[in-house]
Structures are given as structure tokens and as C-alpha cells.
Write a structure and sequence with these properties.
InterPro entries: Peptidase_S1 (IPR050430), Peptidase_S1_PA (IPR009003), Peptidase_S1_PA_chymotrypsin (IPR043504), Peptidase_S1A (IPR001314), Trypsin_dom (IPR001254), TRYPSIN_HIS (IPR018114), TRYPSIN_SER (IPR033116). With about 260 residues, the chain is an alpha+beta fold. The chain folds into two domains: about 45-135 and about 250-255, Trypsin-like serine proteases (Thrombin, subunit H, Beta Barrel), CATH 2.40.10; about 135-245, Trypsin-like serine proteases (Thrombin, subunit H, Beta Barrel), CATH 2.40.10.10. Helix content is about 15%, strand content about 30%. It contains five helices and 13 strands. The strands form two sheets. The protein has a six-stranded antiparallel β-barrel. A six-stranded antiparallel beta barrel has the order 2-3-4-7-6-5. A hairpin with an 8-residue loop joins β5 and β6 (about 95-105). The radius of gyration is 17 Å and the shape is globular. It starts with a helix and ends in a 6-residue tail after the last helix. The relative contact order is 0.21.
């Protein structure tokens, strides 16, 4: 049986048993801690997702009608037949211009509860036309060790906070970390950093994405290098943020949205 169908059946069983929150997307997403307030004018590609009237995740505008986000940000919404709404052109959460999603797509190899292939697309019902709604180019070079990267989002700014979004968009600067070291840090926890992911942050912790930032952008050199995906805790030493690597999915993005160029 197809792995995606198996995973769907598993989640549906959990829902039936009441083991998943009725609006799980705001909680399944990991993970800005150690950042500061910023303005949407400086990050006009950033948008937020609202699922069943509650903030869930971030996303990035890659064309007037397509957004790139994490698979886990749309997966359960599809299973529950939930409505996805997008807000844009606003520094404040759940504000600005609102538009409904026309369709959402997640990678066919994504399995709910695992971290790999955590990439998804959302097509909005009409083109985003606003002052601070500008597509960001997809990275085609891939992240390099020690490169400076920018993460943004409305996620928690303290790991102990209640699972609610931060009112003002946050920004932080992180560094691309050694892939092998990151794999070794996570391996004892039986978490696997694959070649389709990269790690960014600091070995000592202190700055990181957090719950609610999932699906949002990590930008290197002005291009979208990754999607905020997962991690253990927030800003913990030797547990940096793990991001879906855009260059690993250029063909997939092109196939499903027509955006970008194939590898």
C-alpha cells in the first residue's frame, strides 16, 4: 500500500480516538528565539497560514499564486478537510490581506510523524496583489558551511510560552552548520538529518526558530534556501534548527507549480 495512504489512515485513527488536537497544525510544527521585531516591508515574501480560524504556520511567496511551506503544515489540514486561509502584507499576525487556498500539495514521500520530505505547496485562489507581497527567488546553489542566514516568523519567542503566535513578525540571523556534526548531535535521539535537509543556528544554542515558525523561510543571499522544518526543543545547545533544503526539491517544485528551474 502507498506509504502516504498508510500514514493518512494512521492519523485518521488517532483523530477518531481523540489523540490529536482538533487543530493540530499549530502544535505539530516545531519551531524565533533570540531574534527581534522586524517589518514585513523587509520580508515581503513572508506570509502566514490560518487553519480553521487559528494561526498554524508560515510560508513563502514564490509566485503571485504559489506559496512554499512545510508538508506537515498542510498534511493534517487535508485529512481533516480543513480550510486554509493565507494572510499577507502585514507585520502583525492574523492581519493584513486575507485570501483562501485553492489547493495544497505535500510531497508524496512525506510520512506524518517523520521529518523527511517535509515540503509542500499552496496555490491561492487569486493572485497576491499588494505592496508587500513579493515573490522570492528559489536558491539554486545550496547552503554552504558558515553562511549567514535569516529566519523569520510569528512563532513563540520563548519555548515555555503558551502555544500561541507572537503578535509581531520576528527575525534572527543564524549560521549554516556542519552537516556531519548535526547528524551526530541528533542521532542519539533517533532523529535523522538527511541530505535533503540542512542545519542552521549555533552549537551553543540561544537563537533558533520555535513552534509556529514551521513552514516559514530561511533566506541566504536574498534567496529562499530552505523551509523551517523541525528540531528538538528551541534554541537548545547542539540541537539546532533543521530546514528542508530547497535545492533538493527544485524538480518537484517545478513539476507541481511550474515555478523555478529544474536542477
Amino acid at each position: 500500500m502507498d506509504e502516504t495512504l498508510l500514514s493518512k489512515a494512521f492519523v485518521l485513527c488517532l483523530l477518531a480516538l481523540g489523540n490529536l488536537d482538533a487543530t493540530p497544525l499549530q502544535k505539530v510544527g516545531p519551531r524565533i528565539i533570540g531574534g527581534h521585531d522586524t517589518k514585513i516591508e523587509d520580508h515581503p515574501y513572508q506570509v502566514g497560514l490560518i487553519v480553521d480560524n487559528e494561526f498554524s504556520c508560515g510560508a513563502s511567496i514564490i509566485s503571485p499564486t504559489w506559496l512554499l511551506t512545510a508538508a506537515h503544515c498542510v498534511y493534517v489540514a487535508q485529512i481533516q478537510n480543513s480550510t486554509i486561509q493565507v494572510f499577507a502584507n502585514s507585520t502583525e499576525v492574523n492581519s493584513g490581506i486575507f485570501i483562501y487556498a485553492n489547493q495544497s500539495i505535500y510531497h508524496e514521500k512525506f510520512i506524518y510523524g517523520l521529518e523527511d520530505y517535509d515540503i509542500g505547496l499552496i496555490q491561492v485562489s487569486e493572485p497576491l496583489k499588494c505592496v508587500n507581497c513579493k515573490p522570492i527567488d528559489l536558491d539554486t546553489a545550496g547552503p554552504k558551511l558558515n553562511q549567514s542566514a535569516t529566519i523569520t516568523g510569528w512563532g513563540k519567542i520563548n519555548e515555555m510560552d503558551l502555544p500561541e503566535p507572537h503578535k509581531i513578525l520576528q527575525k534572527a540571523t543564524v549560521r549554516v552548520l556542519n552537516q556531519t556534526l548535526c547528524e551526530e548531535w541528533y542521532l542519539p535521539k533517533k532523529k535523522y538529518v538527511t541530505e535533503r535537509m540542512f542545519c542552521a543556528g549555533y552549537a551553543m544554542g540561544g537563537i533558533d526558530a520555535c513552534e509556529g515558525d514551521s513552514g516559514g523561510p530561511i533566506v541566504i543571499g536574498g534567496k529562499l534556501a530552505g523551509v523551517t522544518s523541525w528540531g528538538i526543543g528551541c534554541a537548545e545547545p547542539k540541537f539546532p534548527g533543521v530546514y528542508t533544503k530547497v535545492t533538493a526539491y527544485l524538480d518537484w517544485i517545478k513539476e507541481h507549480s511550474g515555478i523555478g528551474s529544474s536542477k
